[in-house]
Amino acid sequence: MPSFTEAELIALVAAARSAARGDPFANPALSVALALSRRLDEGRASHADLATILRQLGRAAFLDKAQRLARSVGAGLATTDSALAAIATRIARPDPDDSPVPLAAFRAAAERPRAAAVFTAHPTFSLPRESGLALARAAGGIPPDEPLPLRPTAPSLTDEFEQAAFAIANGRDALDRLAAAFLGTARAIWPDRWSQLDPRPVILASWVGYDTDGRTDIGWHDTLRLRLRMKRLQLARLAGQLAALPPACTGPLRARVAQALKALDAQLAACPPPGTPEPAAVQAFAQALIGGREAALVTPAPLLALFPAAIAAAREEETRLALCVARAGLVAHGLSLAHTHVRLNAAQLHNAARLRFPHLGSGPEDPARRRALFAAINTALEETTAEPVDFGGLMVEQASAARLMMTVAQITKHIDASQPVRFLVAETESGYTLLAALLLARLAGVEDQVEISPLFETAEALERRGERVVEEALRSPHWRAHLKRVGRLCLQFGYSDSGRYVGQVAATQLIERLKLRVADLLTRHGLQGLEVVLFDTHGEGLGRGGHPDGLAARFAYLEPPAVRAAFAARGIPTRLETAFQGGDGYLLFGTPALAHATIARIAQHVFAPVPAEITDPAYAEASPATDLFAGARVAFNGLVEDAGYAALLGAFGPALLDRTGSRPANRQSDSGGPVAIRHPRELRAIPNNAVLQQLGFLANLMHGLGHGALQEAEAFAELLQHSPRFANALAFARAGLALSDADVLRGYVASLDPGTWLDRAAQSRRPGRAAALVAVAGALEQLGLGDPARAVFRRLKADDLALRAAWPGQAPRMSDRLFALHALRLCLIHRIWIIAVEVPDFSPRHGVTREGLLHRLLRLDVPAAVELLEQVFPASDPPGAALDFAEPPAPRHDGYGEEQERLIRPLREVFALVREISAVVSLECGAFG
User: For residues 595 and 80, is the Cβ–Cβ distance under 8 A?
Assistant: First the structure.
């Protein structure tokens, strides 16, 4: 019998969508799903056929993503080197026909970090590691091998660290080329002074292994171990650079680096293993770390002191250039492959401050105590002095925020004192939080070594509280003095939660407005001399700020011309920091060519001329863009608060996702299985967005825009055509339209409706099938998700219709290939449910009844359900059943072979295909979540 093919599936989808265009009651996704189910029933298609089709669709999606990745960065070594040289030349000689700028001006431009790429461990490791590397290579034209596994395998913390380190190493190589471009330009203009420069306009940072916000699996000793490994990677990198140069000029440097590496290896060997450390192990580690600190170096100064002699002794110009490049990397990053960011949340800080200073009482939640609380913490800052920090105290400290600050103290004392540590605070909604962080830093003796940074990403923080947080802190003389000592104000803006709660497009305006207000605020307080770090923690996913039009558009989105101009007009220097989150983010540094191009795009953005005047109509007085963004924000808030939206997200969406990180997507219920989600806040931001991708409707990118766009259709079209800022933001909605189809979402929603199954039962002619379909309807009735899901579908559909009607020309449309993936998965989900109602009754196991098991399977909690079925219906008798028990044996039935073949094996096979489809859908959407 001939196999069912990919071409037949696509043709089936195209025909169903075409037929549905003239039929308002058609449901093409369910029509295709039913046709596929009948093919399987009749033997005209098999699970093996579907697996083959998925491999073909997956490979096509993989190659398309590789092409998009290449276009995004503009990869190409020759052109990228030219781009870097052009940047350096323009800085040295702004007017090609005039004399170059003074060396001091060139040095100021080259040696101030203007941008940073920050590597995070967000759970977006959406491909197996080897497949991720193959994708990066495919972006450079190298086809992937077969087989090509696409389903992710959840990484451990060590896996995350190693993948980040690999990407960072490629990034450092690219930074070396950037430094070489600046040095080469300087050498041509100032041949006797160029070697004095240490270019570092772009730097790298990482919080992989240091982020304890929402994580309990990272101990203080894990953070120190990984920080020591970053130090080792830096020294090993320097050793490799020196090994490529003549020993005659690099001998002393080589010897000192070798000495440091030997001492560092002893420190790493003494570090306690993961888990709760034993006191004796901590003692041995402390002795190794402190005893070897001078040999292992705690600052690069001893190494930097050896470079001038090495450069002077070098005979070849290229050797001198290589030494200057190596030195620049050491100056830029200190004793680490990348700068260090640590992170926790505001509640942890409040708890630690209250434990150490009981008179502070509760945190800033009580408005009646606000004035008294600020007065009390300012008094505490006035009176507090540094206390000793040792490993014994670190080991017994119970407050997580105090423990993290003590860990930072040990890093600066014993590992690397040359670079500040960024101290990121999630969920900051009061200036008190920043003062509490400063108080703990003062206690630990590191207030001048940490850069305390609030994170703003909730709707409340972006709309009202963000500006107030900064102003409340600035009223404290201790905070102002701290900022002046460290020289910069660091602010973090989140795109995941903001996009989840107010929609990605509306969040665009809120974040930009907050940045503009900060510029005004610093001017009012006379702090224009501070550098302001604007750290945008977006992701590669569309729902988290990963721009669909490539890196240049991404940076213009994160730091639009109006923001750059506002800070420049006030004389406030800024640094753009941009996140590369998890495996999807690391792809942009997955090969040397990709990393090189990514660094070039960053450099091109931060060195682009600042506009003298903003003429974009989006910023005009009474611009319709303001009303459109405000209306979208209100509409999206209504969606988030709709109980049906939570029902839709939580019905079975989380079960469609493989683990892509070390944290679960949502909590588990006490009786096992996923809990019912009552509000989107109960699902983390990245899985929230991923579920929308898997349901074929990216509401976070476009919902709420339709009503306003249709009311002002002419103004909407004008803005899209003539406003670069508006078009840049609305690119997310455009991408959302291309990846969404209300017919697909209708298919998922209708699947939750018992009426759909009763209608199908009425038309079924297959023996026994009608009864199974009625049983599915009954089980879904008990689950009670159909009505709220249908109600929220109507809300989503109405706005989608309006946006598509208002969109100039033909609105983007989901491809037949992506539609086919959703239809195929609907078929498979339906088959899982039909198998589920055939499970015979059994006595409760571990508190789970047949009814509870059925509800698990309806929510697609298949792995846990199958595990339970294995216990209820084992494949064979226990191994010891064949022993001689001293009397004639009773009959042995050799397990439940029939249940294994009829229930358990098909459930496994079909669910594996469901998850395989999810991996391909993620590729089609560009990134996970």
Answer: no
Cα distance between residue 233 and residue 756, in whole Å: 59
Other CB atoms within 10 A of residue 244 CB: 10
Q: What is the pLDDT of residues 752-765, one digit of tens each?
A: 999 999 999 999 99
450 bridge partner residues: 421
CB-CB contact of 839 with 49 (8 Å): no
Alpha-carbon gap, residue 653 to 215, rounded angstroms: 23
Residue 375: other Cβ atoms inside 10 A: 10
Q: Which DSSP letter does residue 145 get?
A: P
How many angstroms separate the CA atoms of 214 and 208, rounded? 14
Query: Residue 534: which of 545, 518, 546 has the closest Cα?
Result: 518
Angle between helix axes 685-694 and 643-650 (nearest 10 degrees) is 80
Residue 134 near residue 224 (C-beta atoms within 8 A): no
**CB burial of residue 730 (10 Å; 0-12, 13-18, 19+):** buried
Contacts with 506 (C-beta within 8 Å, 6 or more apart), sequence order: 629, 630, 632, 633, 636, 704
Query: Nearest Cα to 690, choosing from 536, 537, 493, 919?
Result: 919
The rounded distance, in Å, linking the Cα atoms of 402 and 348 is 9
Q: Is the CB of residue 535 less than 8 Å from the CB of residue 490?
A: yes
Q: Which two tokens stand for residue 306?
A: 């050896």
Q: Check if the beta carbon of residue 409 is closer than 8 Å to that of residue 445.
A: yes
Round to whole Å and give the CA distance between 527 and 474: 10
Q: What is the pTM of this model?
A: 0.95
Total residue count of the chain as it appears in this document: 929
For the stretch 102-138, what's the b/e string if a residue is b when 16 or more beta carbons lie within 10 angstroms of its beta carbon?
ebeebbebbbebbbbbbbbbbbbbbbbbebbbbbbbb
Residues of the chain by 3-state class (helix, strand, coil), percent to 5: 65, 5, 30
Q: How many other CB atoms are found less than 10 A from the CB of residue 229?
A: 20
Joined together, the tokens standing for residue 469 give: 């947080």
pLDDT tens string 254-292: 999 999 999 999 999 999 999 999 999 999 999 999 999
Cβ atoms of residues 924 and 682 within 8 Å: no
The tokens 């109006």 sit on which residue?
562
Specify the 3-state DSSP secondary structure of 339: strand
Sequence-ordered list of residues with C-beta below 8 angstroms from that of 330, at least 6 positions apart, any chain: 234, 238, 300, 303, 304
pLDDT at 663 over 60: no
> How large is the angle between the packed helices 317-333 and 247-270, nearest 10 degrees?
30
pLDDT digits (tens, 9 = 90+) for 237-251: 999 999 999 999 999
pLDDT tens, position by position, 868-894: 998 888 887 667 766 878 888 887 566
Query: Distance (Å, rounded) from C-alpha 55 to C-alpha 222?
Result: 39
Question: How many CB atoms within 10 Å of residue 292?
Answer: 19
Work out whether strand 488-494 and strand 531-537 pair parallel, antiparallel, or are unpaired. parallel
Other CB atoms within 10 A of residue 335 CB? 26
208 — phi, psi (to 5°)?
-70, 115
Q: Tell me whether residue 341 is exposed, middle or buried, using C-beta atoms within 10 angstroms of its C-beta: 0 to 12, 13 to 18, 19 or more.
A: buried
Helix (H, G, I), strand (E, B) or coil at 804: helix
Match 């930072």 to its residue by tokens: 408
d(CA 201, CA 777): 62
Report the alpha-carbon distance of residue 906 to residue 647 in Å, rounded.
28
Structure token pair of residue 920: 């391909």
Beta strand pairing call for 339-345 and 202-206: parallel
Q: Helices (DSSP H) in 119-156: which residue ranges?
A: 129-139
Read off the amino acid at residue 328. Answer: A
Q: Rounded distance, CA 709 to CA 711, Å?
A: 6
CA angle 363, 364, 370 (to 5 degrees): 125
- Alpha-helical runs (H) found in 641-753: 643-650, 685-694, 699-702, 705-711, 713-722, 724-738, 742-751
